[in-house]
Amino acid sequence: MSQTPDKGAGSRTVRLMSVYSVLVITVLVITGYKASKVLLSLFALELGASPAQIGVLMAVYGVGPLLLAVVAGKVSDRVGFFWPLLGGSLCFALGMLLPGLLPSIPALFGSAALVGVGFVFYAVTIQGLVGALGTPETRTRDFSTFSLGPAIAAFLGPIAAGFSVDHVGHAYGYLLLALTPLAGMAYVAALKRGFPAVRKGGRSERGNALDLWKRPVLRDTFIVGGVVLSALELFSFYMPIYGHSVGLSATAIGFVMSAYALAAIGVRFFLPALTRRLGEAHMLTLAMVGAAGTFMLFPIFESAWILAAVSFMLGLSLGCGQPLSQILSYNRSPVGRVNEVIGMRVTVNKLAEVACPLLFGVLGTAFGVGLVFVVNGLLLGSGGLLNRRTEGA
User: Fold this and answer.
1) pTM exceeds cut of 0.90
2) For labelling, which of 142, 189, 261, 288 has a CA lying 20 to 30 Å from the CA of 304?
3) How far apart are CA 281 and CA 228, in angstroms?
C-alpha cells in the first residue's frame, strides 16, 4: 500500500520534492480555488442570480469531479504525479480566466465546470503524492503539514476575493486571481525531475471502483469524507450569500471566512499530537460533532465580528475534518490502488457537492439562507455518528 520515493542514485533528484514543496503548490492553486467560490457567489448576485441559481452553479463545480475522480486516480496510479498535476492546474487557470474575459452568468457556469475538472486532477494527484513522499510512521505528520496548505489558502483566498471585488470589480478580480493557479503550474513544471515514481508496496489488488465501495470500512470513510467536504463547500458558498443578505461588504465577508481558515491553520499544528492521543477516527468524530453545533450559531448573528468568532470556532473543529478523512482513506487503501481510492473518495465528495447545493439552494430560496446552516449542522452530526462505526477499524 505504501508508496515511497526512489532510493539510491536517484535520491539526489527526489530530494527536490518534499511535503513542503507540495505545501507551496497547494497554497498557490487552492488560493485561487477558494477565491473563486467567493467571486462566483458575489458575481452571480451582482448579475441578478437567485440563491437557487447559485445552488446550481455550486453543483456544476462538482460535476466534472463526480465523473472523472476515479479516472484521475487510475491515471495517477499509472502515469505518475507530474502530468495530472500540471494538466489539472492549467485547466483550473483557464476556468479562472473565463469570467474575467466574458463577464456573464453563462461564463460563470463554464468557469465552474473548468475549475471543477482541473481541481479533481489536482486533488487526487496531490493527496497520492503526499502519501508517496512519506512512510506509514510519518504519514499523519505529512498529511497534517500538507493540510496547512488548504488552510492557508482558505485564509488568503476569501480576503483576496473580497478585496478585489471592492477595489477592481468582479471580472478583474477573476483575472487577477487566475495568477495563483498559473504560478502553481509554473512551480510544478520547475520541479518535474523531483517527482517520485509511483511504486507499490507489494502485489497490487485488482478490481473496479464498485469493489472499493463494497468494503464497509472504506464505504463509511467515503461517506463521512463527503459530509465533511459538503459542509465546507456549503460554508464557502453560503457565507457570502448570508453576509450579503445582512448587509456586509465584500471585504467584511472575506474577513469572516478567513477567520475560519486562521483557526484551521492553528489547529493543524496540534493535529499529530491530538491523533496520537485520541486516534484519527475518534478525533474525526469529535470534530464533526463540534462543527455540527457551531453551524447552528450562524443564523443567530449579523455582526461581522461575531460571525468571524463563530467562523473561527468552526475552523477549530471542521478544520480537522479534511486531513483526518484523507489519512483514513490512505491508510485503509488496498495495495496498489491508493490513488484509485482517493479518486473514489473524491467521487463521493463531489456527489454530495452536486446534490447538496441543489437541495440547499431550494431551501435557501424558499425559507432563507439561515436554514441552510441549520440543516448542514444536522448533516454533520449524522456523519459524526456514522463515523463512530469505523473507530475500531
Assistant:
1) no
2) 288
3) 13
Distance CA 190, CA 184 (A): 10
Residue pLDDT, tens place only, 260-306:
878 888 887 888 788 788 877 788 888 888 888 888 888 888 888 99
| Homologous superfamily assigned to 15-193+208-390 | MFS general substrate transporter like domains (1.20.1250.20)
Cβ 194 vs Cβ 17: under 8 Å: yes
Contacts for 385 with CB less than 8 Å, ≥ 6 apart: none
Whether 191 has a pLDDT exceeding 80, the answer reads yes
Amino acid at 156: L
The set of residues, in sequence order, having a beta carbon less than 8 Å from that of 68 and lying 6+ positions away, is 117, 120, 121
| Helices 280-295/321-331 angle, 10° precision | 150
Pairwise CA distance, residues 43 & 58, whole Å: 13
* Cell numbers given for 225: 469524507
d(CA 274, CA 244): 37
Alpha helices, H only, 136-205? 139-167, 170-177, 179-190
Closest by alpha carbon to 298, among 217, 239, 340, 214?
Answer: 239
Phi-psi region at 279: left, alpha or beta (left = phi > 0; alpha = psi -120 to 50): left
Q: 312: closest CA among 324, 298, 327, 326?
A: 298
Spatial distance between the Cα atoms of 293 and 315, rounded to a whole number of angstroms: 12
Residues written for the chain: 393
